[in-house]
Amino acid sequence: MLSVLSLFAVCAQVALSRSVPYNGPQTAFVSDVKVPVVLGVMSRCPDALLCESVWDRVLQRVGDKVDISLSFIAKVGQTRPMKSTGVTCLHGMEECAGNVHELCVTKYHPTPEWWSFLHCENFQGRAQVGLPDTAVKCAEVAGFQWENDRARECAGDNGQGHEGVRLLQESVKTSMQLGIKTSCTILINGRQVCIHDGTWYECEGGHTPADFIRQINEEYERLNDVD
C-alpha cells in the first residue's frame, strides 16, 4: 500500500527520520465526512518542506480521514512580479513556477499522486523546485508522464501556463482570506492549529505527528458523530 520511496530530512536545523510517502487511504468509507486540512506554504520555503514531511507521517495513519490541500503565500499586484502572472513570490520566480506545478498536479491528480509529486520535488532540494526537469522527474515518480499530462498543459512552459497562473492567483487570494501569512501555517477544519517559521509556535494541541493524528481523529469523530 505504501510506496518504497524513502523520504528525507528537510530542514538543516531539524533532523527528521526518513518516512515512506503517503500512498492513499488505508480504509474506504462510504459516506464519511473528511476533515479539511490546509497547509499554507511556499514551495521553496524550508519551513514548508519540514511541515510537509511531518504531514507525510500523519497521512500514513489518518489519510483516509482527511481532505488535504495546499494554499500558497505570495503577493498579488506587487512590483517586479513573475513575468505575466502578476504574482511576486518570496523565493523568486522559480518558487512561483513551483507553486504552479504543484497546483496543477493537485488539480488533475488524486491525493496520493500529487502528494508523491510534492515530496519528490522536496527531495530534490529547494533549489530544484519549480524547474522543468524536476517536474518531469517527479511526475514519473508519481506515476504519470509530464509531457503528455493535463497538469503539464495547465502549468505551461516554466510554470507560466494560463490556467496555472490563474490557479496561483486564486490560491494566493484564498490564503489572504484565510488569514494565512506565514509558511507553514496549518489549518484543521478551518481553524489555525499550528505554525512553523524557524520553530513551532501557536501550537496549543502540539506539533508532532502524533499530536496532529490525535487532532484529526478527534475532529473526524466530531464531524461524523462517532460514538
Q: How does this structure look, described?
A:
The chain is of the alpha+beta class. It has helices spanning 46-62, 93-108, 111-124, 132-142, 150-155, 162-178, 209-223, and strands spanning 35-41, 66-72, 75-76, 87-88, 185-188, 191-196, 200-201. The chain has a 5-stranded mixed sheet with strand order 2-1-5-6-7, sandwiched between helices. A two-stranded antiparallel sheet has the order 3-4. Strand 1 (35-41), helix 1 (46-62) and strand 2 (66-72) form a beta-alpha-beta unit. Helix 1 (46-62) crosses helix 7, helix 2 packs across helix 6 (162-178) and helix 3 (111-124) crosses helix 4 (132-142). The model is unreliable at 1-20 (pLDDT under 50).
List keywords for this structure.
single chain; globular; alpha+beta; disordered N terminus; 227 residues; two-stranded antiparallel sheet; five-stranded mixed beta sheet
Estimate the helix proportion, in percent: 40-55%
What does the oligomeric state look like here?
Answer: single chain
Label the structural class.
alpha+beta
Strand order of the largest sheet: 2-1-5-6-7
Radius of gyration: 17 Å
Largest sheet: 5 strands, mixed
Could you report the average pLDDT, rounded to the nearest whole number?
A: 88
Overall number of strands: 7
H and E order: EHEEEHHHHHEEEH
Question: How many helical elements?
Answer: 7
Low-confidence region ranges: 1-20
| Rough outline | globular
Distance between the first and last residues' Cα: 29 Å
Q: What proportion strand?
A: 5-15%
